[in-house]
UniProtKB/TrEMBL annotation:
This is Sigma-54 factor interaction domain-containing protein. One of its GO terms (biological process) is regulation of DNA-templated transcription. The keyword Cell membrane does not apply. Gene3D superfamilies: 1.10.8.60, Homeodomain-like, P-loop containing nucleotide triphosphate hydrolases, PAS domain. SMART domains: AAA. Keywords: ATP-binding, DNA-binding, Nucleotide-binding, Transcription, Transcription regulation. Residues 315-542 form the Sigma-54 factor interaction domain. GO terms for molecular function: ATP binding; sequence-specific DNA binding. Pfam families: AAA_lid_14, HTH_8, PAS_8, Sigma54_activat. InterPro entries: AAA+_ATPase, AAA_lid_NorR, Homeodomain-like_sf, HTH_Fis, P-loop_NTPase, PAS, PAS-like_dom_sf, Sigma_54_int. The keyword Transmembrane does not apply.
């Protein structure tokens, strides 16, 4: 311990040293060492306390703190007037008054996260008395170390504060730019809301909300805010929750999707909420749901009324294969997806398409059936897209195309495999919402129609042979329905026979056929399917006996009048020949064309001109 004497010398740890002659700062004389020791201790504490206090000042820079700290240090040393100090940190140097680097130096390090990042030096400006073998006291060594530690702590706090401020700033910039509402709630009070949040709840400025109680917001739509926070306002932190709230304000209903995430902010629990206005999506969903509910209700009624399920609309059949078809029809009717129906000629593809339309939300609009086999390439746009008056010489009036007619309804494309690749490309654009232009009109048109198509054969071969575009192929057959041929569901024959006889108004009261006739009908192979069955029954009702397709077409040649010129005679013969072939094939145009030895397209052309 050091001791001071009345004659101006200092005692330290039993050694006497001369006081510096010109230094008036030698310790004041005292009668006992205890108060002096106390005074020294107070000086030390003042210094440490002063350094700690510097950090309490808000919004001060690290340089400001270091400069003030370095100025506080000399006063705590034994000879304050002879002492000076320096702090070096991050390439900066902070010095006390009269700083002079001499050989009487004392040093400690400033450490940050285990790294040596700076140091603190104390110097005596002039030679000090030697005490305990050195100019500095042991207590001063301790004090300097304590100062170094305190400055290390101040530095760490300041850096953390800066990092936090930076991340807060980043977060603020981010949240102010996002299109979603963001709010931070701590202890039932808003600490932050972004501009989008203010917009959602009619709050004039975000500033008004800061520190406002969640239960009783100082501005904006208090009810809406209270509904969103509910019991969560108590700082109860749950795991991340997402919910959609319906807010009704002044005749306006909006739907807000809220995601609450519990976080720790500035060491305390907080609730970070992001809010998104989903009114538009929600309304669309509700409209779709209403539609689906309606259809489901109708379908439920329909299903329950079809206990035996022997028919759906005009389609008859109680076989398991037809039950599966009914199920698909109802499913397809509940969606707006494109449907492709496959099946042999006369098996009821058009009936199925009608049933889908009649059970869908489009049922009150038109069902437009187009036989693609009869569409000529050159007339495609005219027929599908319509034309304007004057677009070509015979266009006396504006005329709608199939797509106009099917607006809001269904476009049934029968024999879809007959469309050329060119036609497919034009149609695909319109189906995919790209619109179309009526002939002679520059204005593009958009209509809303659902496509149902039918084909006798699978379309893969057409794709493989390059006759059908891949994209068109996939676009038209989102839902596929395969119709079974009549020969594979013979248990439906008695039901169909009874139905056709009843509709044909037979003279006999009982709409049945004798058992042996029924046996023949069941045994037959029905290449022309239900259509052929209907035609055979028609002939049976008219002629009183069964007559299937004649195996020998030559036996039924038509007599030609002798007064006709050759061209007309050929025409009449051709016409008779075509209708005979059609009758033999029970209306199946593919088979009729095959019987005649011409292409289907040629047959369609002849049918439309004759
Ligand atoms: N399951 C059925 N129940 C009642 N009638 C049916 C049934 N299937 C077909 N028909 C009748 O058979 C005839 C042919 O039906 P439809 O025109 O729907 O067949 P399609 O498969 O489209 O024939 P195509 O391929 O030749 O155009 C229609 O008169 C129809 O009423």
């Amino acid at each position: 311990m050091k001791e001071e004497t009345t004659n101006g010398t200092i005692h330290s740890a039993g050694q006497r040293q001369e006081c510096l002659p010109e230094k008036a700062s030698c310790r004041p004389l005292s009668v006992s060492s205890a108060p002096n020791a106390l005074a020294e201790r107070i000086k030390e504490l003042n210094c440490l306390y002063g350094i700690s206090n510097l950090f309490e000042n808000q919004d001060v820079s690290l340089s400001w703190i270091m400069q003030r700290a370095v100025e506080l240090i000399p006063a705590a040393w034994q000879y304050p007037e002879n002492a000076c100090a320096r702090i070096r940190l991050d390439g900066h140097e902070y010095t006390s008054k009269r700083f002079t680097a001499t050989r009487w130096r004392q040093n400690t390090k400033i450490i940050l996260n285990g790294n040596d990042v700076g140091d603190v030096d104390v110097y005596y400006i002039d030679a000090p008395p030697v005490v305990d073998g050195g100019p500095f006291l042991e207590e001063e060594d301790h004090l300097l170390r304590a100062i170094g530690e305190r400055l290390s702590k101040v530095l760490w706090l300041k850096r953390s504060e800066e990092a936090l401020r930076e991340s807060e700033e980043r977060y603020r910039v981010l949240t102010e730019q996002v299109a979603e509402g963001v709010a931070l709630v701590q202890s039932e009070r808003f600490s932050y809301v972004n501009p989008e949040f203010c917009k959602m709840f009619d709050i004039p400025s975000a500033q008004e909300m800061v520190d406002g109680l969640v239960r009783c917001p100082p501005a904006g739509d208090a009810d809406g805010i209270a509904r969103i926070y509910g019991s969560r306002a108590h700082g109860v932190i749950e795991s991340k929750v997402e919910e959609v709230h319906c807010l009704t304000r002044a005749e306006r209903t909006s739907w807000i999707q809220v995601c609450h995430s519990p976080i720790t902010f500035k060491g305390r629990p907080a609730l970070l909420s992001t809010l998104k206005d989903v009114t538009e999506i929600k309304e669309q969903q509700m409209a779709a749901q209403r539609k689906a509910d309606l259809l489901n209700d109708e379908n439920r009624v329909l299903r329950s009324s079809l206990k035996e399920r022997y028919r759906l609309g005009d389609i008859l059949g109680r076989s398991p294969a037809m039950q599966a078809v009914y199920e698909l029809i109802l499913k397809a009717a509940a969606t707006d997806a494109s449907v492709a129906i496959f099946g042999e000629s006369g098996s009821g593809k058009e009936l199925v398409a009608h049933a889908i339309h009649d059970h869908s939300a489009r049922k009150n609009n038109r069902f437009v059936a187009v036989n693609c086999g009869a569409v000529q390439e050159s007339l495609f746009e005219r027929e599908f897209f319509g034309h304007r008056k004057g677009a070509f010489s015979s266009a006396d009036t504006d005329s709608p195309g199939y797509l106009d007619m099917a607006d809001g309804g269904t476009l049934f494309l029968d024999e879809i495999g007959e469309l050329t690749v060119n036609m497919q490309a034009k149609l695909l654009r319109a189906i995919e919402g790209g619109g179309y232009r009526p002939v002679g009109n520059m204005e593009p048109r958009l209509t809303d129609f659902r496509v149902i198509s039918a084909s006798n054969a699978a379309l893969h071969d057409k794709v493989n042979e390059g006759e059908m575009r891949n994209d068109f192929f996939y676009r038209i057959q989102v839902v596929q329905i395969q119709l079974p041929p009549l020969r594979n569901r013979k248990q439906d024959i008695p039901l169909l026979v009874e139905h056709f006889l009843r509709t044909m108004k037979t003279r006999s009261a009982t709409a049945t056929v004798p058992g042996r006739i029924m046996d023949i009908l069941i045994a037959y192979d029905w290449p022309g399917n239900v259509r052929e069955l209907r035609n055979v029954l028609q002939r049976y009702v008219t002629l009183g006996h069964l007559e299937f397709l004649s195996p020998d077409p030559e036996a039924e040649m038509v007599p030609i009048a002798t007064d006709l010129n050759l061209r007309d005679a050929v025409r009449r013969l051709e016409k008779a020949h075509i209708s005979k072939a059609l009758s033999r094939s029970s209306g199946n145009r593919t088979r009729a064309a095959a019987l005649l030895g011409i292409s289907r397209r040629a047959l369609f052309r002849k049918m439309s001109t004759s």
